[in-house]
Amino acid sequence: MFMSLQKGRTGFRLFSLLLLLAAVTLFCFIPVIPSLVIRDTLSHELMWSRSITADTSFGIRWTHSIHRSLIEEQYRIQSGQIVLSEMSFHDYGIGMENELSPGEELVISDGVFRIRHMNRVFPALHLFIGQVRANHTLLFAGQEIPLGTIDKPGSAITIQTETRSIFSMIGGY
Questions:
Q1: What averages of pLDDT result for each successive group of 10 residues across the chain (173 residues)?
Q2: 118 contact partners, CB below 8 Å, separation of at least 6
């Protein structure tokens, strides 16, 4: 009788261990980590990813092809969407914003045009990485990351938010 009780406990422990391992493995594959990602638009290959919080913000800076002056856009993440909140530029002309949406404000200071209080929502940002002079740069968490180091210049990329799993964050897929 004692042997049969011992076998029952061992079987229960083994079953519990396997159940725990299955739960941990399953948890590693469930998307739970909000992330800002950059994917190659054509191949959908993940090129860059960082975890984010509800109040994460980032910017994109580049050189305008005609004016050859810097333009910087500031974005924030809101409910999984990317929201353009501010834009600054040095020259006003071809290709620049020419109308303000309700609530937006144009401020000119020290030779810089700044559109503030923007609230333009995008599910994703699509752009081509400049090949000649644009020098597209991602401004994220105090870092300046040239997009040409993430994907090759001329590539189409998509910047978006995704919920990723622990497994994918450590390079599993």
A1: 62 77 70 90 95 93 84 95 94 71 92 94 96 92 96 96 81 58
A2: 84, 85, 86, 87, 101, 104
Q: What is the pTM of this model?
A: 0.81
- The set of residues, in sequence order, having a beta carbon less than 8 Å from that of 59 and lying 6+ positions away, is 72, 73, 74, 75, 138, 139, 140
Count other C-beta atoms under 10 Å from residue 90's C-beta.
15
Which residues make beta-bridge pairs with 89?
Answer: 71, 113
Structure token digits, residue 92: 């006003």
User: For the purposes of burial, counting CB atoms within 10 Å of the CB of 89, is it exposed (0-12), middle (13-18) or buried (19 or more)?
Assistant: buried
H or E segment and range at residue 8: helix 2-29
pLDDT (0 to 100) of residue 94: 66
